[in-house]
C-alpha cells in the first residue's frame, strides 16, 4: 500500500534494463527491491543457495535449466487463468517484463516466496473467503512484500501488505514501541481484506481496486477525470504515476508465476513450518522471547520467525498472541500455570518485567524551526527509526509546525529513577539505543544478577537444586535456562514425575 510513498518507479524500458546504467543504479524498482529483501532473511530451513529440486520433475529439466517460452504460450496460459478469475488477466509487453523478472532475473528468490506461501497462503485464502473477495488477491502480497512479514519500504510501509502508519491505524492496527501489528500476519491480512472490500464499493472493478491500493483512491479518481471519465485500468493507466502503471501488470505476472512455477523449473524451498503445523495461544502476562525459549526449549530465532510483530523480543502485557509450532503450543497450554509462576519468580528475583510497571504514553510533538529527527528522538529517549515508524516523514524532511506522535514509557509506581534503571536492565527502557537493545534482547536476564540463579549445590562438574515447596521442573528449566528434556534425562525422570520437597535435581 503505497498511498503516501515517494519511491520513484522507472519506466518499463528502464525497469527491463535498457535504460542508462547510472539511472538504474540511482532508482530501484520497489517490486524487485521487495524480492531482494528475502535474500538475507533466515526464513527457511534450507539455505538460499540450495532450492529444493525434484530429480523426476514433470518436464525433465536439468537443475540449472531456465526455460524460455514464446508470447503465444504466455498468452494461452494467462487466458486459462483469466477464464476462472474476476480479474482481467491479459498478456501484453508490460506483463511480459514482470514475468521475466520473476522467472529469469529473480527466479531463486521466487523459490523462497513459494516456501513462504505454504505458511501464509492458506491463511490469506481463509480470510479473503470470509470477506467474500477474490482469492487471487493473495498474490497481491507477493508484489507488496514478496511474502516477507518484516519488509519495510523506503517510505515506511510495513509488513506483508505494506500498510503505512496512518492507514494501518485507520483499520485498527496498533503500533507502539513494543508491537507493530502491521507485521502481524493475521491482523494485517484482516485489515487488508477490509480495505480492499471498501475500495471495491467505490470502484466496482477489481483492476481499479488494485491501482487504488497502490496509489490511493483519490489519485485514481483524479486519473479518471483526466482520462475523460474512463472506467477501466488500462484506459486510465497513461494518467497514473509510473509505479502504479507497473502495479497491475506486476499483479498479473505474480498470478502467472505462482501458478506456473514447475513450467519454469522453479521449486519451493522448505519452510520451517507450514500453516497447518502452527498454532497460537494468548499470553496473559508479559514475557521475553528468551524466557519463552527456555520454558519451551525453542530458539529465540524460531520465536521471532513466527511472531514478527514484536519489535523488541518481548510480548508486552495486554493479552497478546504467541504463534509457534503446534507441539510447543500444546506444551505451553499443558504447563501454562507453571510457566507463568516460574517467569514471575524469575522476574521478581531479577527486578524484571513483573516487578517494573511501565506504561506507554502517546505524546504530540510540534516541530520547531531547525529541529532534526535526531534532536527529537534524543529529547524523548526514542530512536529515529521509531519516529519514522509512528509518523510519515516525506522526502523533504521536517517542516516547522508539523505534529509528530511519540510514544514514551513512563513508570506508574515506585521512584522514577529506580524504575528507570530496572527497566533498562530488562529491555523495557525506551531511552536505550539500538545497539544496547540488541544486546539486551539476546540476554533477558541482567548479567549482574546471573549469580542469583546458580544452583545451590555444586560438586565438581555437577550442579544440583534442592526442591522447595511449589517448585516444578518447568520452573527449574526457566530459572536456570536448562532445557526441560535435558533435566529429565539427567535425573531419569518423565514429564509426569512427582517431585518431593528436599529432592536434589541434577542440572549439569
Summarize the structure.
The chain has 508 residues and is mainly alpha-helical. The protein has 23 helices and nine strands. Strands 7-8-9 form a three-stranded antiparallel sheet.
Cα-to-Cα separation, first versus last residue:
52 Å
Any idea of the CATH class of the largest domain? Mainly Alpha
CATH level-two architecture of the largest domain? Orthogonal Bundle
Task: Report the mean per-residue pLDDT as an integer.
Answer: 79
Tally of DSSP β-strands: 9
- CATH T-level topology of the largest domain: Lysozyme
Strand order of the main beta sheet, please?
7-8-9
Description:
The longest helix is centred in the N-terminal third of the chain and has 24 residues, at 107-130. The chain is globular. It is mainly alpha-helical and 508 residues long. Mean pLDDT is 79; it is low at 2-27, 351-357 and 412-454. The protein starts with 11 loop residues before the first helix and ends with a strand. A three-stranded antiparallel β-sheet has the order 7-8-9. The chain has a two-stranded antiparallel sheet with strand order 1-4. It contains 23 helices and nine strands. It has four domains: 26-264, Orthogonal Bundle (Lysozyme), CATH 1.10.530.10; 275-347, Membrane-bound Lytic Murein Transglycosylase D, Chain A (Roll), CATH 3.10.350.10; 355-439, Membrane-bound Lytic Murein Transglycosylase D, Chain A, CATH 3.10.350.10; 454-506, Membrane-bound Lytic Murein Transglycosylase D, Chain A, CATH 3.10.350. Helix 5 (93-105) crosses helix 6 and helix 9 (185-203) crosses helix 10. Strand 7 (457-459) and strand 8 (462-466) form a beta hairpin.
Amino acid at each position: 500500500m503505497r498511498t503516501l510513498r515517494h519511491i520513484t518507479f522507472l519506466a518499463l524500458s528502464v525497469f527491463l534494463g535498457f535504460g542508462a546504467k547510472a539511472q538504474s543504479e540511482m532508482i530501484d524498482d520497489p517490486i524487485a527491491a521487495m524480492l531482494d529483501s528475502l535474500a538475507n532473511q533466515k526464513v527457511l530451513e534450507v539455505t538460499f543457495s540450495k532450492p529444493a529440486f525434484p530429480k523426476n520433475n514433470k518436464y525433465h529439466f536439468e537443475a540449472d535449466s531456465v526455460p524460455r517460452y514464446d508470447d503465444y504460450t504466455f498468452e494461452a496460459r494467462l487466458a486459462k487463468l483469466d477464464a476462472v478469475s474476476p480479474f482481467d488477466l491479459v498478456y501484453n509487453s508490460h506483463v511480459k517484463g514482470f514475468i521475466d523478472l520473476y522467472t529469469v532475473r529473480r527466479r531463486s528468490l521466487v523459490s523462497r516466496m513459494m516456501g513462504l506461501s505454504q505458511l501464509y497462503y492458506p491463511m490469506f485464502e481463509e480470510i479473503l473467503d470470509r470477506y467474500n473477495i477474490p482469492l487471487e488477491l493473495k498474490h497481491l502480497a507477493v508484489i507488496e512484500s514478496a511474502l516477507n512479514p518484516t519488509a519495510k519500504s523506503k517510505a515506511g510501509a510495513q509488513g506483508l501488505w505494506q500498510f503505512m502508519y496512518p492507514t494501518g491505524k485507520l483499520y485498527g492496527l496498533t503500533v507502539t514501541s513494543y508491537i507493530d501489528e502491521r507485521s502481524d500476519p493475521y491482523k494485517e491480512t484482516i485489515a487488508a481484506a477490509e480495505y480492499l472490500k471498501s475500495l471495491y464499493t467505490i470502484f466496482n472493478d477489481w483492476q481499479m481496486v488494485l491501482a487504488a491500493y497502490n496509489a490511493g483512491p483519490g489519485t485514481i479518481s483524479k486519473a479518471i477525470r483526466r482520462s475523460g471519465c474512463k472506467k477501466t485500468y488500462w484506459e486510465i493507466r497513461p494518467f497514473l504515476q509510473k509505479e502504479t502503471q507497473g502495479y497491475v501488470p506486476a499483479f498479473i505476472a505474480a498470478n502467472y508465476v505462482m501458478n506456473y512455477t514447475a513450467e519454469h523449473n522453479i521449486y519451493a524451498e522448505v519452510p520451517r513450518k507450514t500453516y497447518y503445523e502452527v498454532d497460537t495461544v494468548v499470553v496473559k502476562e508479559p514475557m521475553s522471547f528468551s524466557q519463552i525459549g527456555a520454558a519451551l526449549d525453542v530458539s529465540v530465532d524460531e520465536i521471532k520467525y513466527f511472531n514478527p510483530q514484536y519489535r523488541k523480543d518481548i510480548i508486552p502485557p495486554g493479552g497478546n498472541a504467541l504463534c509457534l509450532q503446534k507441539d510447543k503450543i500444546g506444551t505451553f497450554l499443558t504447563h501454562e500455570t507453571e510457566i507463568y509462576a516460574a517467569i514471575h519468580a524469575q522476574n521478581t528475583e531479577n527486578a524484571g518485567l513483573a516487578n517494573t510497571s511501565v506504561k506507554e504514553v502517546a505524546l504530540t510533538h510540534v516541530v520547531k524551526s531547525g529541529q532534526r529527527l535526531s534532536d527529537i528522538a534524543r529529547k524523548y529517549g526514542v530512536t529515529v527509526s521509531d519516529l519514522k515508524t509512528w509518523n510519515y516523514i516525506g522526502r523533504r524532511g521536517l517542516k516547522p509546525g508539523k505534529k509528530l506522535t511519540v510514544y514514551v514509557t513512563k513508570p506508574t509506581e515506585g521512584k522514577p529513577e529506580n524504575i528507570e534503571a530496572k527497566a533498562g536492565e530488562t529491555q523495557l527502557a525506551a531511552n536505550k539505543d539500538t545497539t544496547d537493545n540488541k544486546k539486551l534482547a539476546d540476554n533477558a536476564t541482567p548479567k549482574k544478577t546471573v549469580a542469583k540463579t546458580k544452583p545451590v549445590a555444586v560438586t565438581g562438574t555437577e550442579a544440583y537444586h534442592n526442591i522447595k515447596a511449589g517448585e516444578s521442573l518447568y520452573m527449574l528449566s526457566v530459572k536456570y535456562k536448562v532445557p526441560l528434556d535435558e533435566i529429565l534425562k539427567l535425573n531419569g525422570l518423565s514429564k509426569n514425575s512427582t517431585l518431593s520437597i528436599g529432592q536434589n535435581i541434577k542440572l549439569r
